[in-house]
């Protein structure tokens, strides 16, 4: 029995986490594999049990997060040197690369060569060099950052409008699956309309077929940072630095619920109350909507 319409509607209307909760392991008519197929869920997610993170690994990742947030231009070789020299951590380059890949830092962590031919099919040139960006929704940038908690972590995907620095969408997830990126982008497009160009790094979430097809369906031009050039996407990197330095690092969240709460609070503050000198001391919302005294909630 084939139900492509049902699969498409569920995939478009429900997040991955919501679809995971719909699995009924006691259903005698539909196998778990068939349910996963109908819900557009990778079956491995249903059986995979993550290995608990050791205290040492968690501590090292916290340090990598802080160093990378302050210096996104650092490569894994320099990061390894910093960890050894400044923090006295015995770590090799291979381990540093593995940790940063797990944290979603793709600027200096290219994927394995095994998938290079397939991966290159969805690589696109950087379109922003020399571009005159003079109106909202001309260019958006999208990226993912690692959000540490007191014990554990989540990932934040955020989308910023280059012209106004306005955060047009964001989402939090406990995994780096591409579905949470696509869900967040769909919501942003529905709320604000499609941008002319969207820029990202070359991470797997932004080079997968589903993501590329979504952009093509909405007639969005695709721009990607050059390999190892995190500063090509500096607008979103600066936002992440502000978010972490002004909010996340000060809170030390204990739960995902608390992290979601403080993230929503900060983005509302950033969009509506935090003036930018580069925006003539106006807020991103004022510049994006070209109005004053407005309050907009992003979700």
Automatic annotation (TrEMBL):
Where would I find the Integrase catalytic domain in this sequence?
A: 132-292
Q: Which GO terms describe its biological process?
A: DNA integration
- InterPro entries tied to this protein: HTH-like_dom, Integrase_cat-core, RNaseH-like_sf, RNaseH_sf, Transpos_IS3, Transposase_IS3/IS150/IS904
Q: From what superkingdom does this record's organism come? A: Bacteria
Looking up Pfam families in the UniProt record yields: HTH_21 (PF13276), rve (PF00665), rve_2 (PF13333)
One MF annotation (Gene Ontology) recorded for this entry: nucleic acid binding
Bilayer-crossing regions: none
PROSITE patterns documented for this protein? INTEGRASE (PS50994)
Q: Which residues form a coiled coil?
A: none
UniProt-listed NCBIfam families = transpos_IS3
Function recorded in the entry: Involved in the transposition of the insertion sequence.
Q: What is this protein called?
A: Putative transposase InsK for insertion sequence element IS150
Which species is this UniProt entry from? Thermoanaerobacter kivui
